[in-house]
Amino acid sequence: MPDSFKAILISRDENKKQSVEMVDLTEADLMEGDVTVAVEATTVNYKDGLAVTGKAPVVRRWPLVPGIDFAGTVLSSDHPDWRKGDKVVLNGWGVGETHHGAFAERARVKGDWLVPLPEGMSAHDAMAVGTAGYTAMLAVMALERHGIEPARGPVVVTGAAGGVGSVAVSILSKLGYHVVASTGRSTESSYLFDLGAAEVISRDELLGPVKPLAKERWAGGIDVVGSVTLANVLSMTAYGGAVAACGLAGGMDLPATVAPFILRGVSLLGIDSVMAPKELRLEAWRRLGEDLDIEKLRKLSRAIGFDGIIDAARDIVEGKIRGRVVVDM
Description:
Helices cover 28% and strands 27% of the residues. It is α/β, with parallel strands linked by helices. The chain folds into 2 domains: 4-117 and 298-328, Medium-chain alcohol dehydrogenases, catalytic domain (Quinone Oxidoreductase, Chain A, domain 1, Alpha-Beta Complex), CATH 3.90.180.10; 129-270, Rossmann fold. α9 (309-317) links the parallel β14 (301-304) and β15 (324-328).
């Protein structure tokens, strides 16, 4: 009999009712691809939580193994860039949405989707970064390209105690920015100060009625919330500033006006991590190796085993997770 391995499988019945279970699969159950990887570590992102709980239509093919991130070792390859034994990382590309994902001990994917594990970084460390940290780095790079440098003034980070927010606070503070961390969890203030935040504000300050223009408070921002929060962040952004938007934890709507854009020259920068070109991915992971303090990274992450994935997925959707969760396979 072929060797089996553990996996989490999401299925739907004829009434479209979703179920989630732990199963044993074999490599014959994997989807098409030219590289097979032994998954050594994965993580639980907010998007994974939505997939496992079914609270948003993340999964678009059934049955499916969820999980949008993994780090591991190549077992076999028909791709010219990869050989058996190579250490690799994967983020996005529809994995965990339309292609069997990371919540299994084996994965078969296209070699073009992979990037090398950064020098000096373990599989565990890479998943402490994960799509959340990689997205945070893309957002920081977008602000830099727009000229938002530390000398321009404070930068706000919403959802700061979450995965993207925690890494963003850590990176920005190391780069010399005055970071204003917004959170709905006042108990996390000391954690955010430890990561490098200069100020911690309540998310309630960004949930009030949206004015076309409010008092200028920051030169830029990284937003993971969307909706009213993003609209208020935009209205409070200084002339010529920019906000990188990369999440929708508060909703997909944007109840804003054009005033910040046409009266203050504010820019809204969209961040997509799923289909980002390989060159941008390589640069983001290179920068993560340089600009993310490994000791801080370990402070903002905790490890669980494979059996803890489903519970962690539920907890992250309910806002009970601080920082990053790493699954050591």
